[in-house]
Amino acid sequence: MMTELSVTASSIRITDVTQDGDILTFAITSQKLNSSGGVCVFRTYEDFDWLQQNLFSQENVPGLQGVIFPPLPPKVPSPLNTASKSLKQLGFLALGHDWQSYCKALEFYLQQVATHPILSQCKALDSFLTKSESPGKQRGRKGILNRLSQAVEGMRKESHKDVDDFFQKQRHKNTNLAALSKVATEKILDVVLTEQKLALACGHFSTCLHLCVNQDDEAAVAFSKICLKLSDIVEAVKRNFEKVANNNIATLGLGLDLEARYEEAEKEMLFRRTCKLIELETVKKNTEKTKANKRDVMEEIQKATEKEFSLISSVAKQEIERFHSSRVTVLRSFLVGWCEKQLDTAKECAKLYSQYLDTCKNLFSE
């Protein structure tokens, strides 16, 4: 069912997250349209999944299969305290203090749905953002054999040649960009993990230098002063590594992670359109083989399928144009934010190192 969203999309925020065992509960706030009143609801991941399924399964929405659905971040694996498992499945979204990166990704997901010209009119979205009761319900899961058969069928359909050169080129472009985005995300994640390891090592080294402090004689006192000052410097290096890593996570990391997931979302949309194309070609072949007394029925089915395929293609072209315009704007915003944060951190670090250098010169001149 379609309805007008009763809150402003730009006001949607995830302001807090609480953990109860293996369950994360997110506090979502938003501002009412034409009103100073605010709304706050509490949602679990199952509620987000409920919303996504409702977006997928809307009825009487022409060309819905041509929509590039904003990608919902994957569920945090249980148990929540298994860092290696979370990192493997969530990547950047597993990093950051108190699930900040994960909350930011969910927040951006809601904002993207709320600003979408088609999806924002889904009644389930307004209910999700404004109703106090939790809407999430467990849904039936398909068996693994069914999923495997779908995967094999999917591989066959993905290689099917398109009748429209625009979509054929778009599929090729998407395949390349999806692979490159995934590699870029993995590489910057490796950089962040290395920075965090270096920060940890600097912390250990700084602590060890304190063990060298000795006040027994004059020579030992002088050496102790050097160790203490060096410990302060190494501690500053540690803090710099931590800041640089956090900057990478909050800006470039989240941007690349979003880019990679959106490329997969576009791939899924193109695949759905290809499936409809194969369905149309099959209907046409069956119509040609149909006997004269049943041809009228088959021709009506063919016309309906052609109309549906045409609507999907029309929506898909608009979505692709909108997607590429949006992804450039969003990724540029993350890159600018990354540059600004790293530049501020570098200036702050250079100023601090300069102060330590002057202190060391004075220390050795004594």
Structure characterization notes:
By secondary structure, the chain is mostly helical. The protein has eight helices and three strands. It has a three-stranded antiparallel sheet with strand order 1-2-3. A hairpin with a 2-residue loop joins strand 1 (13-20) and strand 2. It starts with 12 loop residues before the first strand and ends with a helix. Residues 1-136 form the PX domain. It comes from Triplophysa rosa (Cave loach). Residues 280-307 form a coiled coil.
Provide a quick synopsis of the model.
Helix content is 68%, strand content 6%.
Chain-wise SSE layout:
Blueprint: E1 13-20, E2 23-31, E3 38-43, H1 45-56, H2 83-90, H3 100-115, H4 123-130, H5 144-158, H6 165-210, H7 218-289, H8 295-365
Antiparallel strand pairs: 1-2, 2-3
Helix pairs in contact: 6-7, 7-8
What is the first-to-last residue Cα distance?
A: 80 Å
Write down the overall geometry.
elongated
Secondary structure class reads mainly alpha
Based on CA atoms alone, the radius of gyration comes out at 27 Å
Give the neighbour order of strands across the main sheet.
1-2-3
**Mean of residue pLDDT?**
88
Secondary structure tally, helices = 8
Helical content class: 55-70%
InterPro entries: AH/BAR_dom_sf, PX_dom, PX_dom_sf, Vps5_C
Pfam families: PX, Vps5
GO biological process, one term: protein transport
Family: Belongs to the sorting nexin family.
